[in-house]
């Protein structure tokens, strides 16, 4: 009997451990519940060991299953490391660059930058992962991250492209009422608990404005839409709101909410031609839009 474990076997075991169910593992692997069940039975038969115990909550790994899952994690890290090092040897600007950024940055700043990049480097394809979650560059979930941060990870290298200013905005009609004194009781639009934005929540709490929030949303783009509709006052990044004719800024940018904008990659990829081309081009384009970032009219 061939009782050797293949890499696909280890990936199967790890998927079941991480998902806790066969159906969840199947979704992660792109196959059916029945296929996962059959493959798991085949692996356990070949090894002559039980890897999981079925419980009310799902599948729980036995000590043998945990050991196999640990080996799978080590192998996945080694494979990702090899991919990064090989990709870093690329000498010409071609291939694919996978970029992760936020929905707000894409909508308010980066979309035209990406279009211009592809016009300048037609042999480089872009894959844009739009997410407000932080992707792991070490695991090759993305090659480059463009994100706001005052403390970028030490494991990544890159360039600070500018500093994002933020300010208070209102719909034009509401701003006019505020100036005339008619909008004194105007409410606020703030972040809800699902939004990972501790600095903004501290800003609201420190000014007791959290109690005046009449509407809360879990994305900046959602807050932007609510402000445009006249729902109240809100803090928005200047690059998103400053050029919007439907909005008017109330006062100067808020220095306590300013944050650096970084273009980051893994150190093993920094010398790849396509990565260098993208990072250099994007840095120059964002730098040219410095007034927009800083909220300068």
Describe the structure in your own words.
The protein has 297 residues and is an alpha/beta fold. It folds into 3 domains: 81 residues, Orthogonal Bundle (Arc Repressor Mutant, subunit A), CATH 1.10.10.10; 97 residues, 3-Layer(aba) Sandwich (D-Maltodextrin-Binding Protein, domain 2); 92 residues, D-Maltodextrin-Binding Protein, domain 2. It is built from 11 helices and 12 strands. Helix 7 links the parallel strand 8 and strand 9. Helix 2 packs across helix 3. The longest helix has 25 residues. The mean pLDDT is 87.
Q: Concise description?
A:
The protein has 297 residues and is of the alpha/beta class. It contains eleven helices and twelve strands. It folds into three domains: 7-87, Arc Repressor Mutant, subunit A (Orthogonal Bundle); 97-159 and 261-294, D-Maltodextrin-Binding Protein, domain 2, CATH 3.40.190; 166-257, D-Maltodextrin-Binding Protein, domain 2.
Strand tally, please?
12
Percent of residues in helices comes to 40-55%
Order of helices and strands: HHHEEHEHEEEEHEHEHEHEEHH
Share of β-strand residues: 15-25%
The largest pleated sheet is described as: 5 strands, mixed
* Overall domain count: 3
- Under the CATH scheme, which class of the largest domain? Alpha Beta
Distance between the termini: 74 Å
- The dominant shape is globular
Q: Assign the CATH topology of the largest domain.
A: D-Maltodextrin-Binding Protein, domain 2
Low-confidence stretches: none
What structural category do the secondary elements indicate?
Answer: alpha/beta
CATH homologous superfamily caption of the largest domain: Periplasmic binding protein-like II
Instruction: Report Rg.
Output: 24 Å
């Amino acid at each position: 009997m061939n009782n050797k474990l293949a890499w696909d076997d280890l990936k199967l075991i790890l998927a079941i451990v991480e998902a806790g169910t066969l159906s969840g593992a199947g979704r992660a692997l792109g196959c059916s519940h029945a296929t996962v069940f059959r493959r798991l039975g085949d692996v356990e038969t070949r090894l002559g060991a039980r890897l999981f115990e079925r419980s009310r909550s799902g599948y729980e790994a036995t000590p043998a299953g945990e050991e196999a899952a640990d080996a799978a994690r080590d192998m996945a890290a080694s494979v990702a490391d090899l991919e990064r090092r090989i990709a870093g040897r690329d000498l010409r600007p071609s291939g694919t660059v996978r970029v992760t950024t936020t929905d707000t940055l894409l909508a308010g700043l980066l979309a035209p930058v990406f279009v211009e990049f592809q016009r300048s480097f037609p042999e480089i394809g872009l894959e844009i992962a739009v997410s407000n979650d932080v992707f792991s560059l070490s695991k090759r979930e993305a090659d480059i991250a463009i994100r706001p941060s005052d403390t970028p990870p030490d494991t990544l290298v890159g360039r600070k492209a500018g500093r994002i200013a933020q300010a208070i905005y209102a719909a034009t009609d509401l701003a006019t009422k505020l100036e005339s004194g008619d909008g004194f009781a105007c409410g606020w639009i703030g972040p809800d608990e699902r939004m990972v934005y501790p600095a903004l929540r501290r800003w609201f709490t420190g000014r007791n404005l959290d109690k005046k929030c009449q509407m809360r949303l879990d994305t900046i783009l959602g807050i932007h839409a609510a402000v445009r509709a006249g729902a109240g006052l809100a803090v928005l990044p200047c690059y998103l709101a400053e050029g919007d004719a439907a909005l008017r800024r109330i006062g100067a940018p808020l220095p306590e909410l300013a944050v650096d904008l970084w273009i980051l990659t893994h150190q093993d990829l920094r010398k790849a031609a396509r990565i260098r081309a993208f990072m250099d081009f994007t840095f120059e384009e964002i730098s040219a839009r410095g007034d927009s970032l800083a909220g300068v009219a």
